[in-house]
Design goal:
By secondary structure, this protein is an all-alpha fold. The protein has helices spanning 14-36, 38-45, 49-76, 82-99, 103-132, 136-162, 174-200, 213-249, 253-281, 283-293, 295-300, 306-321, 323-334, 339-367, 370-377; strands at 206-209, 398-401. The chain has one domain: Growth Hormone, Chain: A. A two-stranded antiparallel sheet has the order 1-2. GO terms for molecular function: transmembrane transporter activity.
């Protein structure tokens, strides 16, 4: 597939952007069932924090390892209907999770959901790129806000449907998977038609940044370090924030889910704002502000009362989430001939860091306390200072290649 520099005057294909965002919402809603159900699983199966972290690690590794492989393969062999196939794995995982009678089968179920995620994201990110018509950060943020909204809705739906009734009621979420298949079918048809048109047209020139391989690789490395900082911290929230608020402030399971929702919905809003600002002011500055700018608030979080915890967690979510669309598009601009591989690498690395973070923090919480890990993780956003060394892509010259 060909790409051009951000000079296309056409408007984005809004119908496809909305559709892929809705599909992302439904996909990530089903994924987010896993951490949202942790309090119920912890109580029912008497799990340690380390075991809770292992559930996340198994899911995230399955979601991360295959993504660069899927992306690299679909760069050369686009598969418009692959997302539909991936959703079948997710449906199988959700069904098994509802019936799982023991810890071992819970692990198997989340691996199936992770495989579904690894198939979904690379091609879906490519669809968002194709539909952007030049507004890349905006398109990526619209795509991403769908996933973040789905993640935010999961704790509320779990609190409403599953927590009062039991694990078997997870089966209700299969309705969302069926709806996702319908939306993905519509997207696949558009994608397939685009491929047919591209196959009949003359081959376009791809514009790549005129940077040395060392500078490109250094920039990719810096971006991955920033992903580590961001997602290691986010893992501390998505996997353990319910337990933190229950332990520190005496909240019950449903109340704790609401505070998690505050963070997750602010992540959704921050993602959209980050995409808009990335196109307008430059992706490097949004990346720098997003990761480093959250530091004052993460450092204050462990020391405040419940009311301020709710306020700070919203501010942290807004700021720290604004980076990902800019990070991903920045990476795509560095390697425009490998869109699927880049998307798979960064989504996969993000998921992998989330899984490793959950496992490490779970072991740490068992050895110390759930509150202690928030004192340690509060320093992670300070790593964002290394964004200073990224080249400013708005000033980089481009060259044409076949």
């Amino acid at each position: 597939m060909s790409t051009i520099k951000n000079t296309d005057a056409q408007k984005p294909v809004y119908a496809i952007l909305i559709a892929i965002s809705v599909a992302h919402l439904l996909n990530d809603l089903l994924q987010a069932v896993i951490p949202a159900i942790y309090p119920k699983l912890e109580a029912k199966y008497h799990l340690t924090f380390a075991q809770v972290g292992m559930i996340t690690l198994c899911y995230q590794l399955a979601a991360s390892i295959f993504q660069p492989v899927v992306g690299a393969y679909t760069d050369k062999n686009p598969k418009p209907y692959s997302q539909i196939f991936g959703m079948l794995f997710t449906m199988a995982g959700i069904t098994l999770l509802a019936y799982a009678p023991n810890y071992e089968l819970i692990l198997v179920s989340v691996v199936l959901v992770g495989i579904g995620s690894s198939i979904f994201h690379p091609e879906s990110s490519r669809v968002a790129f194709m539909a952007s018509n030049g507004r890349r950060s905006f398109a990526q943020s619209v795509f991403q806000i769908g996933g973040n909204t789905g993640t935010a809705l999961a704790p509320l739906l779990i609190a409403w449907i599953v927590l009062p009734n039991g694990q078997l009621y997870i089966l209700w979420f299969l309705g969302f998977a069926i709806l996702a298949q319908i939306v993905l079918g519509y997207i696949a048809k558009w994608y397939n038609d685009k491929l047919k048109i591209a196959s009949r047209s003359t081959k376009k020139v791809i514009q790549v940044p005129d940077l040395s391989a060392f500078k490109v690789n250094s920039a990719i490395t810096i971006l991955l370090v920033l992903i580590f900082s961001k997602y290691f911290y986010v893992a501390s929230i998505t996997s353990y924030f319910q337990f933190y608020t229950m332990d520190k402030f005496g909240l019950n399971e449903v109340q704790a889910q609401v505070y998690l929702f505050y963070f997750l919905i602010s992540v959704a809003v921050g993602t959209l704002l980050g995409g808009i600002f990335g196109d307008r002011f430059g992706r490097k500055y949004v990346i720098w502000f997003s990761v480093l700018g959250a530091a004052p608030f993460t450092l204050a979080l462990p020391y405040v009362d419940l009311q301020l915890t709710g306020i700070l967690i919203v501010i942290i979510g807004l700021i720290i989430s604004s980076a990902f669309p800019s990070i991903l598009v920045y990476a795509q601009e560095l390697l425009p001939k490998k869109l699927g591989m880049v998307s798979g690498l960064f989504y996969g690395f993000a998921f992998g860091m989330g899984g490793v973070g959950s496992a490490v923090l779970g072991l740490w919480a068992d050895a110390t306390s759930i509150q202690y890990i928030y004192h340690i993780c509060s320093f992670l956003p300070l790593i964002g200072v290394i964004a200073y060394f990224l080249p400013n892509m708005q000033k980089v010259k481009y060259k044409d290649v076949e």
